[in-house]
Amino acid sequence: MRSTRRQISATGRLVGVLTALALLGLAACREPLEPPIGAAHPGETTPRRGGKLRLASIGDLRGALDPATSAEALGRGAIEIMFAGLVDYDEAAHVVPDLASRWELSDDGLSYRFFLREGARFHDGEEVTADDVRRSIERALHPSTPNPWASLYDMIAGYDEYTQKGAAHLAGVVVEGRYVVSIHLHDKDARFLPVLALPTLRPVCKSAGERYSDSWAPCGAGPFRLEAGGWDHGRSLTLVRHEGYFRPGLPYLDAVQWTYGMNMMTERFKLEAGDLDIVRDISQADVVRFQTDQRWNPLSVFEPVRSIYGESMNTEMPPFDNVEVRRAVAAAINREHYREVRPSAVTISNQAIPPAVPGYDPTFRGQEYDYPAALEHMRKAGYPYDPATGRGGYPGEITYYAYRPGLQEYTAQLLQQDLAKIGLQLTIKLVSFPTFVALAYRRKTTQISNPGWTEDYPDPSDFFDPLFDSSAINEDQSQNSAFYRNPRLDEILARARHELDETRRFALYGEANRIVCDDAPWAFTHNYRFYIVHQGYVRDYRAHPVWPENVGKTWLDRAADAVSSTSPGAAASWASLTGALSRPSGRRASH
Amino acid sequence: MLDVRARKRFLKNRGAVVGAALVVLLVLFAIFGPLVATHDPLQSDFQYGITGDLTPSGPNARFLFGADRLYRDEFVRLAFGARLSLFIALFATLIASVLGAVVGIVSGYYEGTDGIRLPWASLGSFGGALVLLVLGHVRPAEAALCLGLGLLAITALVPSLPVVVRRGPRLNLDTALMRVVDIGLAFPFLLLVMAIGAALDRTTATTILVTLGLTGWLGAARVMRAKTLQVRNLDFVAAARALGQSTPSILLRHILPNVAGPLIVIATISVAQMVVAEAVLSYLGVGMSPPTPTWGHMLFEGQDYYLAAPWLLIAPGAAILLAVFGFNLLGEGLRDALDPQTD
Q1: Is the previous residue joined to A298 through a cis bond, with omega within 30 degrees of 0?
Q2: Which of A33, A283, A386, B298 is the most exposed place for a label (fewest CB within 10 A)?
Q3: Chain B within 8 Å of A10 (Cβ-Cβ)?
Q4: B291/A contact by beta carbon, under 8 A
Q5: HEC letters along A390-449
Q6: Is B285 on the interface with A (CB under 8 A)?
Q7: Contacts A336 to B, Cβ<8 Å
Q8: What is the pLDDT of residues A146-184, one digit of tens each?
Q9: Interface of B with A in 182-211 (CB under 8 A)
Q10: Which residue from A minimizes the CA distance to B46?
Q11: pLDDT tens-digit series, residues B175-211
């Protein structure tokens, strides 16, 4: 009897196993995407006012919405539209006037005089004046302010005295009239305007006071403002139009809303259900689906590439202290293969400047895959390798740390395959991200790793100075992770910093790029880009080279009957989820 | 191992036969799969492994189970994974079974005996060592620990020591071992595996199987002890003792053969647990490092592609499911076959 019962339960379990497999197969079947919701007036190009733009993110906004202290990528989009600066970046990443209608540069290149727009108003109705500009800059750079970007502004005259020696004011910032403010530098510095366009020093309302306080309610002069109760911490942030914004008629949107902590799949379901207008967090599989869907493809866009990734080789540790070995690695990597690990998000890279950054030269060939050259470099390095017999090569083992999650554990395996073909044997160790950070940036610890660098501001100096200048070498947490030291490069970078003529300056960075590609402290491998999908009724939405959400001129052209009446909440999420799962044919009519 | 009646019972049990068949298939796959392989399991094939829209090739004549996300042969990787998985699971089970049997039998045999005396002096040294360790004085703590152990050894070996020195509570070997088992069982299995694994810096198959073996014996020890408690009071054991047979000899020749049945059953089911444990470790990224093909790692690599390349999820998932299912059925079949009460 007992035996029979066991047989039944065993058979039952076999059925269970097979059912599980079948369900797995079923779940894997491709489902077509729901169609996007189109524009109500497709032919019309005159923007319409009104509507709330609904965005979402897998992350959560944690820090304060204060331009002086925010270091989060997630908060950058909100801060950019809440606070207007003297200058901003245009869609080609060039610095353009914003709160300042124009600026003048003195003949010696040391003083910038900014002329403010008259009548520009903060969210609290007060006029923006030169005093506010000075107060905001001093507040942001005061030593008591936890400002992670402060050192970017060390070119301002009196910076050291103000931040380290207790000076009452920042001597370099001088009010010359109600609408005129001058900023003096202690040395010519081409990086000044690009870093000034970052949110850090942007004018804040008088309610912010002279010194930083984390209890301040954010208030600036940007096109959108935060109302009381607009930030539901951990859930959502809603910004509404600033009616006193200095550009007449703008912004077109009534409000912008971010919902935080939404997972990728829910974001996609909500986009399909019409409960989100723009989605930026998309899995590889879904990117492929959107790209291959003729209805969604025209409504999607890749963000400009503003980061670089590469195999950083420690120039102080064997075998990478030998420049020929580094050149061999740079020539041995087939970058096309890296791209094929995640074709939707990865583009190949061959140089130190990514495409979205001014100074990028698309004709520069940089480092390229050239297998015979790689073998030749190995021979010159003293480690000749014969691919036919597998003899020769570097006799030691090379440890490669990779972390999860991310692309690294896959690119590491491709690198291992490529380097084995020139006689370099890698042993991959999978570690946690904190361990990776602890090991990869510590002196004489890691032979080779794959770090990345995303721009802080769109300028070549933001890539060369931290990654390849010898002054960026530290015993620990060294941003120059290759511990690369080249006096000639240091000298070129110093000259480029002081060169205000853009053509000559970019020529210097071109020279720096050639040196770095040839000396190969990094073998540049790939860039990473975000994919954005929006509804058809979202108009004039363009990806920006710096800002994650470029909604300043965006408008909504949504038919009245298609406007979703749902508000974020558990019931709405569930309805959209079940709606998306059951695929009712009259979905849009129900909204 | 199985007598005629047991074999009959086993063959009549359909579940057991299915389990045995699955296990045999798995072993054949592990042995011959890599031999018939036409691809290197570690080498990407960017010519045939990739489709026009840059996704991995699906199952075809060249790639029986399709290509993985690095365009390697999924079938070959699965076969090498089977070899590795079985190797780790079998040897980890061997370690766990031997340890479990030794601890369980010894513990059960000595249950209820007086045990050895723990002198207060040596207990005091252990306490001192603990306090010193908490305070962060590692070297003095080690010295105190050695002192305690030394005193314990001396009192055990030299019976003529004054009573004052030897005085202290008695500790039964059974109690000591079972408390160790209790402490071990108090931790979730995988947590314990990960903790021991972290200490051993698991990167090779050997360290992983040792880790799994060192953590997997606790349950077996419990069962072996219970079974030994039954057997040790039987007449033939008493007779052996009366005839003057040594304790090791009694344990090996009389107790072990009589508790071997449950041990075999436990070991068989344990293989299934080890397969899962190894897969979980690899899946979580704390097992063997890439590019070594393991089923858990393959499952992890495939999950992002559940829509574009479902075979990458189904192949390792099915392999794990069927292996676990097979060993569990086989183990249960053996239990029923070896249990005389089934007739």
Answers
A1: no
A2: A386
A3: yes
A4: yes
A5: CEECCCCEEEEEEECCCCHHHHHHHHHHHHHCCCCEEEEEEECHHHHHHHHCCCCCCCEE
A6: yes
A7: 46
A8: 888 888 899 999 999 999 988 889 999 999 999 999 999
A9: 203
A10: A337
A11: 888 988 998 888 888 887 777 777 766 568 888 888 8
**Tokens matching residue B217:** 């014996």
Of A13, A283, A340, the CB nearest to B54: A340
Q: Among B9, B69, B314, whose Cβ lies nearest the Cβ of A24?
A: B314
Question: Across the 591 residues of chain A, what is the mean pLDDT of every consecutive 10-residue run?
Answer: 43 58 56 86 88 90 84 84 94 92 93 94 93 94 88 92 90 93 93 93 89 86 92 92 91 93 89 93 83 90 90 95 97 93 86 91 93 96 95 93 85 95 93 86 93 90 94 90 96 94 94 96 92 92 86 86 40 36 32 28
The predicted model scores a pTM of: 0.80
Question: Residue A13's closest chain B neighbor by CA?
Answer: B325
What's CA A545's distance to the chain center, in Å? 9
Over 80: is that where the pLDDT of B153 sits?
yes
Helix (H, G, I), strand (E, B) or coil at A87: strand
CB atoms A20 and B321 under 8 Å: yes
Query: In terms of CA atoms, which chain B residue is nearest residue A11?
Result: B15
Does residue A347 belong to the interface with chain B, where contact is any CB pair within 8 Å? no
Q: Which residues contact A15 (CB under 8 A, 6 or more apart)?
A: none
**CA A186 from centroid of its chain's CA atoms:** 31
- Give pLDDT tens digits for B67-116: 998 899 999 999 999 999 999 999 999 999 999 999 999 899 888 887 77
Strand, helix or coil for residue B224: helix
Any bridge partners for residue A231, and if so which? A237
Please list, in sequence order, all residues whose beta carbon lies within 8 angstroms of the beta carbon of residue A482, skipping any fewer than 6 positions away: A312, A313, A314, A315, A320, A467, A468, A521, A522
Note whether A14 contacts B325, CB cutoff 8 Å: yes
Is A147 within 8 Å of A68 (Cβ atoms)?
yes
Task: Find the closest chain B residue to A17 by CA distance.
Answer: B321
Pairing of strands A538-539, A224-232: unpaired
Q: How far apart are CA A236 and CA A57, in angstroms?
A: 10
